[in-house]
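This part of the workshop introduces the protein records we will be handling. Backbone structure tokens are a discrete shorthand for how the chain folds in space. Once this layout is familiar, the rest of the handout is easier to follow. The record below serves as our worked example for the rest of this section.
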Amino acid sequence: MEGLPGDRPPRGGEGDPGQGRGARGRAGRRAELNGHTGAPGEIRGRKIVLWRHGQTAWNLERRFQGSTDIELTEEGLGQARRAARLLAALRPDAIIASDLKRTAATAAELASLTGLDVAHDEALRETYAGAWQGLTHEEIVERFGEQYAAWKRGEPVRRGGGELETEVADRAAPVVERNVDKLPDGGTLVVVSHGGTIRTTIGRLIGLAPHTWEALGGLSNCSWSVLGETMRGWRLLEHNAGSLPEPVLGDDD
């Protein structure tokens, strides 16, 4: 993208003005930018970036992938490279990812720019949807019409005999929370996962009732959502974004 370097951004030390004090310096700078002073009793000013993988052939065919291990297309790899250059500018402190090929390849692009290792965890995989997996949208509606309609109404449904959405959140959200707890004050965690898993994780972390999670909407390939830490818990700052977050001015005005 224009205006962003392709090289790995500096992570403290020489050549990084104002951040020569290492992790504490980075944390202080982030806290200042986020409006947090670091005084005792204040929140830690951390952020979570939940990033969906790039395009796959099954995405193009509108096939339900679920936990099927599908690789990125060439376009998907290009999407990951372009998005990684933007996300690298956020100076993430850690990257975690689903262990499936499409997420691993997406995460690898950000890792190559930041020098960070990627921690892969199968708990961040997409929803297992049993008999739905591999079917197109039209085939699912034709063969599982009642099940599909119930799911769209927000009812707890084991799509294709697979997982409930709450079960996906039960496995994914704790992984995100454990890794956030390891961040420095003002730190940023990038979670590379799948559309359904990201939606359920966001719903769980911001405290929405499960039947409302569908209202969050989907993510485009290689788009992301951002959660910010507040006095009331996690807050959704950006959703289905493809650009860097802008400051919110006049929040409730």
